[in-house]
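agent> Task received from the user: take the single chain below, predict its 3D structure, and emit structure tokens. No templates, no multimer pairing.
agent> Plan: (1) validate residues, (2) run structure prediction, (3) serialize to tokens, (4) report one or two observations.
agent> Step 1 OK, no nonstandard residues flagged.
tool_call: predict_structure(input=
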Amino acid sequence: MLAGYGDMPAIRETLAEASEVLKQDLAKLIAEGPAEELNRTVNTQPVMVTAGICAWRAWRESGGADPALLAGHSLGEYTALVVAGAISFADCLPLVRLRGRAMQEAVPQGTGAMAAILGLDDEAVKSACAEAAQGEVCEAVNFNAPGQVVIAGHALAVRRAIVAAKARGAKGAIALPVSAPFHSSLMAPAAARLREALERIAVNSPRIPVIHNVDARSRPSASGVREALVNQADHPVRWVECVRAMAARGVTRVFECGPGKVLAPLVRRSADGLQGIALADRAGLEQGAQLSKAA
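)
tool_result: status=success, residues=295
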């Protein structure tokens, strides 16, 4: 997934650093797999943080400007905090590996599920979840864009919610191939383990404000950052609110750091006047760097 950046020193050095921290050849895992090993959440989470930091450092190597604000969707919030200097890269990698393990172990395999609900407003999605719960957990957990909400909870309740959402006029309802019901209240045991882990590492005041998923606010203190990360584990990702908070602070361009082009289009749907630019490959980096200098 890093092939689009070519042979940039920033990529090579970041992969080497991450491999040394984790005592695992991440470059080989990313390039060669096997897929089932890469898709284990204990590997996926540190790999995704590494990929985000690769893109960030490649952006700086390409002459990209320092951002006025940072935010990250779910796991991406950890990458944003590394960029902001709140957590070191070396501390972040084992932390997100523990996060992945804790989330996986919070709910027995096969017990939980997630689904994307398309073309339905937030309140209708919440209503479908409430109807479907029937004594189990079923919650809206990712508010990704207007008309795109992810739900999570017990597997049978999520299936019932898919039916209820379609009955309310959803244009689509798609079960997601995930290993746990992330960001639902079922993740409370994972949040507790994260709290303990975060107390054991150094956390600093961010040098650049980070808009947090849990409430679309930034936190200037180390204790505030810790609390936001703990709460993020078992609370919804309020991404639409995060994007609108950036726009309210005067942001006009949002650069997506990492392989893929997922968040940049969502930015445009969430706030008028915002331009989303994906730094998904070498060409994107160079184009984005030029735009950042012109801003």
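agent> Step 4: summary for the user.
The two ends are 29 Å apart (CA to CA).
agent> Done.
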